[in-house]
Structures are given as structure tokens and as C-alpha cells.
Amino acid sequence: MSQKLSNRRITSGLHSAWNTMRQPLIATILGLLVGAVVILACGKNPLSVYAEMFDKSFLKSYYLFSTLTRATPIILCAMATAIAWRAGYINIGVEGQMIIGAFAATVSALFIPGSPILIAIISFIIGMVAGALYALLPAVLTWKFRVSMVICTLMLDYVASYITSYFVTYPLKDVSGDGLALQTAQLDPGMWLPRLTPKNTLHFGFIIAILVVVFMVFITKKTVFGYESKMSGFNPSFARYGGTKQVKVMMITMALSGAIASLAGTVEIFGLKYRYADSMFTSTSYAWTGLMAALIANLNPVGMFFVSIFLAGLQIGGSAIQRSLGIPLEISTIIQCCITLFVSVKLVFNFIKKRKAKSTAAEKGGEKA
């Protein structure tokens, strides 16, 4: 009897995992097929191009570590996006929160005196607080003035970018090196995150990203807040009638989202760049790639971890084939966008079905009245 029950649980688990991964896998295959068509249009063999791309993103150790380094901020951006979206709050401002948090952490590290290790820890905390407060701004505006959170968070991305651009152009510009570079002074080497291996760029920030994934799994599966935020995302009316304090859930959710977003920028600076430079996060599109990873993985933390690595591999492999085969770098972007597009089809269908269900329920209610 116990053996049958165990087999049923295993079968149920595998069936659930397949249902979760089915759509992303199909979307990935379709995205690669679209990429193959574009590669054919460039006069190249898609099989050889993909073999070269994946060889120089996952199969060779040097490129694999480069992929993991690039995936680190993407993983964190995906987690920041997911924790808000699963609660029904469409936070498009992860990039702005990452900018503000990373900038605050960098300035703190440059000007607070003391032991480098202690100041690095304090700077991380200050950056997370700054990112959380910046994420709370649209939450308060939504609560008090019914402002659209989507539009508000998106516009605040530009505000963050221009504010930090002013500071690195004028008062905080590093004048000791290249006068044309808009950037702050370099951090003290004692504050740099340690490298995991001496021969590549992979740093301790990747371990921080893994810890955030574990934190996300714990908070979504094992806490009351995780259940309340999930119910708020599924059905706000049910959650409200069930006793959930939605304003409290929104504030905590957005603060966590902003804090995690700030980590994405801070680990990039303390682990790889060692200074804040103008447009360093807008040009790399970490936040938008993280949004793609969150959508493709259907907001599943473990899924987002692997999808982020896959998308980072496409970017690293895309750069490699551009150098070696002359294939445009935009090929990897096309594949990413197509995968996201095919995944989004389900979201559109679900949205249409919900609207039809609501209109049908309203019509039935009118007929009864």
C-alpha cells in the first residue's frame, strides 16, 4: 500500500513538473526555430551556428563561468519581478530600483570611513533600503491616488537613470582617470566580492543569487505572507474577504521587490565593475532580461534560476558567434524575444478567458435580476 502511494506521489510530481515546464520548452523550441530561419537568411547553417553558440556559452568552462557571471544580476532581477507579479502588482520598475539601490550602495562605500569589509556590508544594507524605498513610492501613489502601478514604475526607471546620470556627470565624477568616462571613483579593493575561482570573473554574487532563490522558495511555500500574496494575485476580492490586509501585502511585496532589485545592481558593482558608471544597467538590459526569465518560467523561482542562466548563455554565445562567424549579435535577442512572445500567448488567452467569464457572470446576474 505504501509503495503504491509512493509511486502515485512520484507520478503526480512528474506530471506537475511536466505541466510546469511544457510551455517554456515548447516556446524555447519555437524561438530557436525562428532564430534558425533568420540564420538561414544570413546564409549560414543553423546547426553549426547553434553548435558554436552553445559550445561557447555552456560547454567550455571559460565561457560557462562568463555565462554564470552575466546570469547573476539577471537571476536577481527575475526574483525581484516575480515577487511583485505573483501578488498581482505589475512592477516594471526593477531597472530603476536596481539603479537607485546600486548607486546608493556605491556612494556609501566611497564616503563612509571604516573597515572595508564592514563598510561593504553596510553599503549593501543601505542599497537594499534605498531600493525598497524607491519601490514603495509607486506603491504609495497607487494606494493613495489610484495611480497605475505599471505606468508609475516604468516612468520611475527614467527618473532613476537621469538622477544618477547627473551625479556621475558632475559632483561625483571621477576626474583621476579618463575625463570622458562618466563614472564614480573605484571602490577600495578590500570591498570587492571575492572570486569563486581565480581564473574567471565568477564572484560571490552568484552565491548571493542562489541564496535569494532559496529565500524565494521558502517565502512562497512556507510562510503566511507567501500564501497571502499568492491569493492577492489570484483573486484580490477573495483575499480581501478572507481577511488579507492588501495594503500591507502590497507594501511588503514592493519593498522586497525593490530590495532584491538593488542587490542585482550592487553585486554587479562590488563583484565585477567596482564603480558606478552612467547607463551601466540600462545598456545591459539586465532588468528586462530578468522580466523575460520570470515570464518564461511562469514566476517559478527554481525555473527562473535556470531560465536566467539559459538567457545569459544566449547572450554570451551570441557575442561569441558574432566574433567567430560574423553572425549579428541581434540573433540572440531575436531568440529571447520570440521565446517570451510564445510564452506570453498563454497569458493573453488566460486574460481573454477571464474577461469572457466575468462578462458571462455579469449577464447571468442581470438575467436573474
What is the fold-level CATH name, i.e. the topology?
Answer: ABC transporter involved in vitamin B12 uptake, BtuC
Largest sheet: none
The separation of the N and C termini measures 53 Å
Q: Calculate the mean pLDDT score and round it.
A: 89
| Gross morphology | globular
Tally of alpha and pi helices: 13
Q: Which regions are unreliable across 5 or more consecutive residues at pLDDT < 50? A: none
User: Could you say what the CATH architecture is?
Assistant: Orthogonal Bundle
What is the CATH first-level class name?
Answer: Mainly Alpha
Strand content range: under 5%
Radius of gyration: 22 Å
How many beta-strand runs?
A: 0
* Class based on secondary structure composition and strand pairing: mainly alpha
Fraction in helix: over 70%
The string of secondary-structure elements, in order, is HHHHHHHHHHHHH
Query: What is the number of domains?
Result: 1
Summarize the structure.
By secondary structure, the protein is mostly helical. It is built from 13 helices and no strands. The protein has helices spanning 2-41, 46-59, 61-85, 94-111, 116-145, 149-169, 205-222, 224-234, 236-241, 246-273, 286-296, 301-325, 330-368.
